[in-house]
Design goal:
Elements lengths: L2 H36 L12 H18 L5 E3 L5 H10 L5 H5 L29 H18 L11 E6 L6 H13 L4 E7 L12 H11 L3 E5 L3 H7 L4 H10 L2 H10 L1 H12 L3 H8 L3 H8 L7 H9 L7 E6 L21 H10 L16 H12 L29 E2 L1 H13 L4 H5 E6 L8 H7 L1 E2 L7 H4 L10 E2 L4 E4 L3 H11 L2 H4 L5 E6 L8 H9 L5 E4 L18 H7 L3 E4 L4 H14 L7 E5 L5 E2 L7 H9 L1 E5 L5 E8 L3 H11 L7 E5 L2 H17 L7 H6 L2 E11 L4 H4 L2 H4 L2 E5 L10 H7 L4 H13 L2
Parallel strand pairs: 1-2, 2-3, 3-5, 4-5, 7-10, 7-11, 8-9, 11-12, 12-14, 13-14, 17-18, 17-19, 19-20
Antiparallel strand pairs: 6-15, 16-18
Helix pairs in contact: 1-2, 1-3, 1-15, 2-3, 2-14, 5-6, 5-21, 8-9, 11-13, 17-19, 21-23, 24-28, 27-33
Length: 783
């Protein structure tokens, strides 16, 4: 193709993009209008939908999806541009009109793009601002990991693209991800900033774009600041144009927005007032009528399709690229530029005018090519049929699953801590030659050795795209750790930022769907610091990413470290978080079986992620022979360590590291309360989920099988008492009284901890043997 032919083809593409841009802008605005003004509002609650935020990014998304993107590219769409995304998917034939009509309603297109709730082609869920941006950098790292292992070819690689509002740059997790990317040597990542300079409550101060440029450049990004469209650039080349450019460059963002809202006459009056003493400027402005002048002043780069196409097509390297693209919030809408337009909605009269402007007849609002003649519509459909993004059909992959060995490692020892046993189990897996072990990827936010991943790393190595020598070994500095990095390694070492841990786990845990190769990610961190990355953990689970989270030490058991390193409410997080099964084993055989189950659960169609709450506290291990029923009970959430007699009056119920105190108290009380039981809870989360499902099924009517916890507690007398104890919030187990109507004395931690040893702290916070005995006595006396 000659240069002239290529230019002609590009010009024709821009013509089609212009038609599609207009259609996308209409459909996104109409979708929101229909949801708020035409669909019955039974509860009188505003539906919302961000018409202004959609309008500012419509041209950028139009250019990307209809011309630039390839099937291998993966995109995180700005949350507030969700209507634009759904409109584009509709035009591509990957979304149906009924979904659009039910936008933000049950079963319809979601308020923000969702991998699990939307039927159209969502790569990354967005909604919690900033997280959808940051995960693309970790997805790029995952892609490089697969490339290094030859599980992905260069031809299968794509760009990981995030589109964000400029207000999202206030989110700190973005900068944490940028720093990690700089350490890693990030590639094939585009971040596109919709720089409309307006957030929900404020207008961005002048000059922030230069600060953003500096931050991106400092972390090795190539920055492209696109400010002016071709019409403005042409005007700048005319006499008086330099003064106009200078005025715009120094115009405060809030003034530019206000003039945008006020319109053509306001532009002329202000420009003449500020620049009218120059004959060239006056002549320049006189060359535009009011409509043309307004069009000129709104000709920012983000609404110039030809400029956007040229810019995106011009990127041919694999460096990370940041595009700061100036736009108008609410572009093309009656409240464009208004400071309150973030949640603004066109009223019926404004929508009628907007409909007429777009040439849409009544009753044709949802038609894909409304207002176009048959020849143009046919040509446009032919163009859509050839859009590169649609070349290969479905973009979600299926991936092989890996068998979990029946003889799963279970380290012996009379006295062990679950955290230490976890490290041994993983180390033993690392010695095996299995597909399961080969596809495990571990990661940790700078606590690899202190969470007992060191043995695994020594076995399987650090991952690095370029070989990195272990200098300490070369220099003969004695260390038990081998920290050489190679492309064959299976551990990703992260900086100490928990948001990055959960974003990495989210990206790794979507590898099977994004890239067609299943990985089994396992991340470790200190249990209390789950809170520091909780939003990102929730985000990963919302996308149904699959991973194993090992959090340690639990509760007060890292006693000398004090309250800042002790966890209280994390069991409640595990209990409440969807798509995350939470377990807290006390003994090593429980842990081994739970990990074996976890690696299968991560791969199951109806499975999910797994959270293990472990401890550094060594405790005596029981001598027992386990069977299939015990194994199932462990996975189902609990079993009788000592079974009660039928109709018993008391049971002690424990979870996790307090097992020795619970067992000691049980032995002390069983002479006075013969027939009492000792219930080991391995997962209050699983027990509660099944019990809740039982209650829902009862309400629906019909046969309802008893939940596991009801079967367990059903051995007790109806008026029996339960003493529950856990190294965490007592509310975690106190709900057990509601299952069969038993009285409960809940023990746990509900205050910030302090430094000490476990014995002193358990006594101080009421978790020791004496506290359990006192609770048992009080509950028996209250009968």
């Amino acid at each position: 193709m000659t240069g002239q032919q290529r230019q002609s083809a590009d010009d024709q593409t821009v013509n089609y993009l212009t038609l599609l841009d207009k259609r996308v802008r209409w459909l996104s605005a109409w979708m929101v209008h229909h949801a708020n003004h035409l669909r019955p509002a039974r509860d009188k609650v505003k539906v919302g939908g961000h018409q202004a935020s959609s309008a500012s990014l419509a041209s950028v998304l139009t250019t990307l999806y209809f011309d630039i993107l390839r099937p291998e590219d993966r995109v995180a769409v700005k949350p507030h541009a969700s209507p634009v995304f759904h409109a584009i998917q509709y035009l591509l034939g990957q979304q149906d009109v009924e979904q659009l009509k039910r936008f933000r309603a049950l079963g319809g297109a979601q308020s923000y793009p969702s991998r699990t709730k939307d039927q159209d082609d969502v790569d990354f869920s967005t909604g919690s601002v900033g997280l959808g941006v940051a995960i693309t950098s970790f997805a790029s790292m995952v892609q490089d990991y697969l490339l290094a292992k030859s599980w992905l070819s260069e031809e299968q690689t794509g760009r990981m693209i995030a589109l964000m509002g400029d207000a999202e740059l206030d989110e700190g997790n973005i900068y944490e991800a940028m720093l990690e990317g700089a350490k890693y040597g990030l590639r094939n990542t585009w971040w596109i900033i919709d720089y409309n300079r307006q957030s929900l409550d404020a207008v961005t101060p002048l000059g922030m774009s230069r600060r953003y440029e500096a931050m991106f450049e400092a972390t090795d990004w190539t920055v492209h600041t696109l400010k002016f469209g071709k019409k403005l650039e042409a005007a700048f080349a005319k006499p008086g144009g330099a003064a106009l450019r200078d005025w715009i460059e120094n115009c405060p963002n809030d003034l530019y927005s206000a003039l945008t809202y006020k319109g053509a006459k306001a532009w002329r009056e202000r420009l003449l007032a500020d620049l009218g003493d120059g004959a060239d400027v006056a002549a320049l402005l006189a060359g535009y009528d009011d409509e043309a002048l307004e069009d000129l002043m709104l000709n920012l780069a983000g609404h110039d399709l030809a400029l956007l196409q040229e810019t995106f097509q011009g990127i041919t390297d694999d460096r990370p690229h940041c595009f700061i693209i100036y736009t108008i919030k609410g572009y093309g809408l009656p409240f464009k530029g208004h400071k309150d337009n973030h949640a603004g909605l066109m009223n019926p009269a404004q929508m009628a005018e907007f409909r007429a402007l777009n040439g849409i007849a009544d009753g044709e609002e949802w038609d894909r090519f409304a207002g176009l003649d048959e020849t143009t519509a046919t040509a446009l459909q032919a163009f859509l049929d050839e859009v590169p993004f649609k070349e290969s059909g479905p973009r979600r992959h299926q991936a092989a699953r890996f068998d979990v060995p029946a003889d799963f490692p279970c380290p012996g020892g009379a006295e062990q801590a679950t955290q230490v046993a976890f490290g041994k189990i993983l180390n033993d897996l690392g010695r095996t030659d299995s597909a399961l072990a080969d596809h495990i990827v571990t990661t940790s936010p700078d606590v690899t050795t202190s969470t007992n991943l060191g043995g695994w790393v020594n076995q399987r190595g650090l991952f690095n795209r370029e070989s990195r020598e272990d200098v300490f070994k070369r220099e003969a500095v004695v260390s038990p750790q081998r920290w050489a990095g190679t492309k064959n390694g299976q551990h990703l070492e992260l900086g100490i930022a928990e948001n990055n841990l959960f974003l990495a786990l989210g990206a790794l845990g979507l590898s099977h769907s994004l890239f067609g190769t299943r990985l089994l990610p396992l991340g470790t961190l200190y249990d209390p610091f789950i809170n520091r990355g909780l939003d990102a953990l929730n985000y990963a689970c919302y996308q149904d990413a699959r991973f194993m989270l090992v959090a340690t030490p639990s509760g007060l058991t890292l006693a000398p470290e004090g309250g800042a390193h002790q966890s209280i409410h994390t069991p409640l997080i595990g209990m409440a978080q969807p798509n995350l099964r939470s377990y807290e084993p006390a003994f090593v055989d429980e842990l081994s079986h739970i990990m074996r189950f976890g690696f299968s659960h991560m791969q199951a169609e109806d499975g999910g992620s797994v959270y293990l709450r472990l401890s550094t506290r060594p405790i005596a291990q029981p001598e027992r022979v386990t069977d299939a029923q015990w194994q199932q009970d462990v996975i189902d959430g609990g079993y009788w360590l000592v079974e009660p007699s039928p109709g018993a009056d008391l049971a002690i119920v424990y979870q996790g590291a307090v097992a020795p105190e619970a067992l000691a108290a049980f032995e002390a009380i069983r002479e006075d309360v013969p027939g009492a039981g000792l219930l080991a809870v391995t997962s209050l989360d699983v027990l509660h989920q099944e019990w809740s499902a039982e209650i829902r099924a009862q309400r629906a009517g019909g046969y309802v099988p008893k939940s596991h916890i009801r079967r367990l507690l059903g051995r007790l007398s109806p008026d029996a008492g339960l003493v529950t104890v856990m190294d965490g919030a007592p509310a975690g187990l106190s709900w057990l009284g509601a299952v069969c109507g038993h009285r409960v004395a809940p023990l746990g931690v509900d205050r910030f901890g302090q430094s000490g040893d476990v014995t002193d702290l358990y006594q101080t916070y009421g978790l020791d043997e004496d506290a359990i005995l006192d609770a048992a006595a009080s509950i028996l006396l209250a009968r």
